[in-house]
Specification:
mainly alpha, single chain, 0% strand
Amino acid sequence: MTAMVKLAGLETKMFFRDRLSVFWTFLFPVLMIWLFGSMFDGNDMNGMSFAELYVPSWIGVNIVTTSFFTLGTVLAGYRETGVLRRYQSTPLQPWKILAAHTFQGTVIFFISAVLLMIFGMLMYDLTLPAYIGSTLLALLISILAFFPFALFLTSLAKNTQAAAAISSLFLNLMLFLSGATFPLDFMPTILQYVAKVLPLYYVIQLLRGTWNDAPITDYPLEVGVLLGIAVVSIILASRFFRWSGK
């Protein structure tokens, strides 16, 4: 446990030294909220305000960016440069390394989520979640689903470039087809069905729902899908974890 905490602390310090990572994790979502706010704020959105729909959505998007770019791509880079092979000579087991990076990513994500919420409150009169306990639980379930999912997918990449390509592909697919940025009602019927195949769709539905409408117990389908993804992803991430690219 001590080794995992130290490793998580070290990775967190390294993250904050990377200005590009800090920008994409903390500033980019705020800029996107501001951009969409300039387009949609004040419009009728099924009885909800812009902030009530899009701030929870972008918090969900940040789970994706953190899991794929802060965790998955970084580990792929460590594999390519031999850092993970040096870890192999230590008592750290693969699951401990994955757990340390997951803890680090969770801390970074929650900082970004708080920043988004404060920005929404200051700029768009966003209110606190109607069911704050359910929203926090929804966030934890989403993290459990996405972090190992991203670690598994990027573990299949042979180098950092391939990991970044995989991450960008999944991010763009889920960003534009899950309902996070554009309402699903505006999309063709076939794309609405495609959206329901994407994991981020269930994150968005769960976060929006618990933030505005009902407790998490009213969303058994979303919870079940995300927990299923979490279990399968954890098994696969542990199974396919590699110390080197060979």
